[in-house]
Amino acid sequence: MRKGESLVEMDNETMRAILNEIQPDFSSSIIENLAISDLDDRAVGDFKKRMAEKTGNRALINSPTAQILQDAELMRGGKFTLASLLLLGKKEKIAELLPQAEIIYEWRSTPEQIHHDFRVSWRVPYFAVYDDIWQTIQARNLRTPYQEGFIQQEVLAFDEKSCREAVNNAVAHRDYSISGRSIIIYASPQFFAVVSPGGFPQHITPENILKAAPHWRNRLIAEAFERTKLVERSGQGMDVIFEAAIRQGKGLPDFKGTDAHTVRINIPAKVKDAEFVRFLEKIVNEKQVSFSFDEIYELEMLREQKVVANPQHKEKFLKLGIVEKIGKTSGTKYMLSHKYYSYEEKPGIYTRIKGISREKKKELILNHIQREGQGIKKDFMLQLQQLGLPLGFRSHVVWWEDYLINNFH
């Protein structure tokens, strides 16, 4: 390779990056000696049914299997691909030819415990088992009740669409060249996590995953999911997962535990802030507006981080009164507005984030002295604490009270 004016030997990292760029779709690999009789009838029937529903062509249900698979590119040149084995092959053939194509589910009543309370595994064609996986998850789904006016509502710990998307994503994107490792689903009352072998594809990181262009490690599998409407649209699974968690008041999913050899997505199961969701619904109803996923995500970042330097949609948020500015000129930052913290009945938190101007601080001191005289320090400290002011500021105010009393009384 060329480095400046010289030719140097290509290092391993550069070679690996180039190979990753040109690596063919592993799921399109041809499986020699796989016959139509090696396919699972239930899986094939479900595949045809879903294709018929997606296309609106009911005749596909009774069409020859080989023709359907050829049209879906799961067969090429009369031979079966690895994707057809994984999605439709009999369990005996999967165990023989692709034993790493296994999905394991583990339930723990507390996420910290080492031993699971329940465990089940599947090494069968995915189109014969995806509903069974969801039913296993659903069997331990917890409900969080909340009051919406006069109506009792509930939020499920495990959102069906999000869980299905997370598992589908792992099946479509795991690295099947890694033997001896399976997709593992970890569930507990606190979170739902899916761990899959193989790190993120080139150019994808936890930081850019919601913005980066779609990148398929196993394109044939991803396209089969799209053809059968197992996923709405390839490349949008993460949007679905993040938006559901935010709209249910659970906070943001994360990728803690992800490294060069593993991808792990953690989806929160417990409701953290249902009031935030109701506040946004109130804005939507009052202002007759809607929020895109990007806008919802940005508002959730504001809720979690309290202050954000430069929100992309700040003009819309300012106009609706959802956010307000802190500071001026280049140092300007943004936070959720007083309207939100009043709705949540947490004015003290608003004051701590927003801070108090110098003039307001002086006004507080003088008003207290004029109203109470010298007073008792601990009473003044208590009043400031009720305003939500940080301890350092409260101590500073009491020092100024002493100074003003001693010098101007």
Measured as a percent range, the helix fraction is 40-55%
**Rg, Å, rounded:** 29 Å
CATH class of the largest domain: Alpha Beta
Structural class: alpha+beta
The major β-sheet equals:
5 strands, mixed
Number of helices: 17
In angstroms, what separates the terminal alpha carbons?
Answer: 81 Å
Uncertain runs: 12-22
What's the architecture of the largest domain, going by CATH?
2-Layer Sandwich
Shape: elongated
Q: How would you portray this structure in words?
A:
The termini are far apart. Helix content is 44%, strand content 15%. The model is unreliable at 12-22 (pLDDT under 50). The protein has helices at residues 12-22, 41-55, 65-71, 82-88, 91-97, 130-138, 160-173, 219-227, 237-247, 274-287, 293-305, 314-320, 338-343, 347-354, 358-372, 377-386, 391-408; strands at residues 2-3, 6-7, 30-31, 75-76, 79-81, 103-107, 118-122, 143-148, 151-156, 183-187, 191-197, 262-268, 323-326, 333-336. The chain is an alpha+beta fold. Helix 7 packs antiparallel against helix 8 and helix 7 runs antiparallel to helix 9. It contains 17 helices and 14 strands.
Concise summary:
InterPro entries: RecG_C_sf (IPR038475). The chain is α+β, with helices and mostly antiparallel strands.
